[in-house]
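REQUEST ID: PR-0412
SUBMITTED BY: lab tech R.K.
PRIORITY: routine
TASK: structure prediction, single protein chain
INPUT:
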Amino acid sequence: MFTRVLPIDLFCVPPFPDEITMKTALTCLSIFALTIVFVGCKSSTDESTDVNTDSAAVSDAPIIMDEMPPMLDGAHGHPEHGPHGGELVELGKEDFHAELVHGDGGISMYVLDGSATKMVPIPSEKLVVSLKHDGQVATFDLAANPEANDAAGRTARFTSTDAKLDEWLDAGAEGAVVIQIEGKSYTGKIAHDHDHAGHNH
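STATUS: complete
OUTPUT:
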């Protein structure tokens, strides 16, 4: 007895009863439809993935600026030297500054604002500087020396021609100055970290 095996073709009607043939055809059509839907969804997903990838690439790209932001000078955001080229003395938590200028014309000290760029005239007749040098301590007065545009009774400039003060500063003496500004007392530390040869400040 021989048995004949017939191949099943999805798009051909097999030699089976009508009921089985109809079920087979519907099954084939369903599989074909699902295949089309799956391929369509995958294409859509791939396109979406490509768009997201492009967006990520754009967001990660470096931003090129036409101009760089201005850089602050000095460690504290103010210039290394005052407007007269002198050394800066911090007063309080940088509420104000004093600028010490030591040169051939004598010693000058200017009272400046927190940015160390603008003069702050105060109603004081003198500033007192205390210095220590070679085991000795001494105080020196810097008298008010108003400039032409200063208001009456106020100035930001104080000067001295004391030879000993000049000598001590030239030798690198350190100390402090106490200044009354707007009813409050500020103490600033005077320390020299530069070469004083030739009074170049």
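NOTES: Helices lie at 18-60, 163-170.
REVIEWED BY: pending
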